[in-house]
Every structure is written in C-alpha cells, then in structure tokens.
Design brief:
With 189 residues, this protein is mostly helical. The protein has 2 domains: 55 residues, Orthogonal Bundle (Arc Repressor Mutant, subunit A); 129 residues, Orthogonal Bundle (Tetracycline Repressor, domain 2), CATH 1.10.357. The protein is built from 10 helices and no strands. Helix 4 packs across helix 5 and helix 4 runs parallel beside helix 8. The termini are far apart. This is Putative TetR family transcriptional regulator. One of its GO terms (molecular function) is transcription cis-regulatory region binding.
Length: 189
C-alpha cells in the first residue's frame, strides 16, 4: 500500500488489521526486531501515523502475535477436536502449534538465534496466548495459568532449538512434556 490515503475513511480496526498484515511481511524479512520505521515505510505512512494506531513497537508486536495466535489456536482446536485421550490431545496440540508457527514465514523469522529472545518474551507476556493455552489444558486459576505458561515456554524452546526431526520432537513431547503437564493438571483439578 502506497501512501496513507487508503487509511482515510477506513474504520480503525480495518486499518489496524491491514497494518498487521503488512507488518507480517516486514517481520518475515527483517525478523522480530523490525523497526516502526520499517513497518511505516512498508505501510506507506509516516511513523507518526503508525503510532496513532499502535502506541509502540511492543504493542504492534503483541497485536501481531495475538492475531496469529488466534489463527493457530483455531487450527489446533480443529485438529484435536476428535481426540478423546487427553495425552494424545495435548501432544498433538503442541506438535500442531509448532508446525503452524514454523509454517508462517513471519513467525519463523522470529525464532532465529537473533530473534528468539524477543519472540519468547512476547509470547510469555501475552495474556491472550496464556488464555489459549489454559483453554487447551482445561484448567483454570493460577495453577492453570502456571501450567499454560510452562507449555508456552516448551513451545518457544522447541521453536528456538528444534529437536532434530518431527518424529523425534513428537516423541520428546509425548515422553517428557505431556505426562508432566497432565500430572500437574490432574492433581490440581
């Protein structure tokens, strides 16, 4: 999009969605550390105009993460909906989340050696991501939030340092992560 003319007369949420779409393209090429100037240039507006829609880079990054998390959450929910076994459902939820993040060029660029710290910190500070993870675990309260944050940490770790092959990764999740999380959530339920 060239020039900020397209923003005039467009409702704020639609402009924010368009900015996030374009920010995703910038993140795919420049990683999580793309500047507001980089994004404003791609959007075709000034940095000042961009700041009217997002208070700062961190807010824009969080909005982008949450936007993509909604999409990934829907894919995970659809994929595991027919699985009756909690262990199978949890393992598959983590595997699908990893696959979907890696499939997204913008998010994949975040989990390079240079960007993993920023991406991990943003993922762990997103209340929305914690809410999604808590819902998949089927727990509530502080304990559910604690378990959800731990699962997000595991996902971030595997994104930053993959386990070698998808089969090996699935086996590690099924052996170490799933029993620990389910054991924790069952004793708290």
């Amino acid at each position: 999009m060239r020039g900020a003319d397209w923003m005039r007369g467009t409702r704020r949420p639609a402009v924010q969605d368009a900015i996030l779409e374009i920010a995703g393209e910038v993140f795919a090429t420049k990683g999580a550390n793309a500047s507001m100037g980089d994004i404003a240039a791609a959007v075709g507006c000034s940095r000042a105009t961009l700041y009217r829609y997002f208070d700062g880079r961190r807010q824009l990054q969080l909005a982008y993460i949450e936007r993509v998390a909604r999409r990934i959450g829907a894919v995970v929910a659809e994929t595991v909906s027919g699985r009756p076994e909690p262990a199978d459902r949890l393992t598959e939820s983590i595997v699908v989340a990893l696959t979907e993040v890696r499939r997204d060029p913008a998010l994949a660029a975040w989990f390079t050696a240079a960007g993993a710290g920023v991406a991990g910190e943003l993922a762990l500070s997103s209340e929305f991501i914690e809410t999604v993870a808590t819902a998949f675990l089927g727990t509530g309260g502080e304990e559910g939030g604690e378990a959800a944050r731990w699962v997000v940490r595991v996902i971030v770790s595997l994104l930053a340092v993959p386990e070698g092959s998808p089969e090996r990764e699935r086996a590690v999740i099924a052996r170490f992560v799933t029993p620990t999380v389910l054991g924790f959530t069952e004793t708290r339920s």
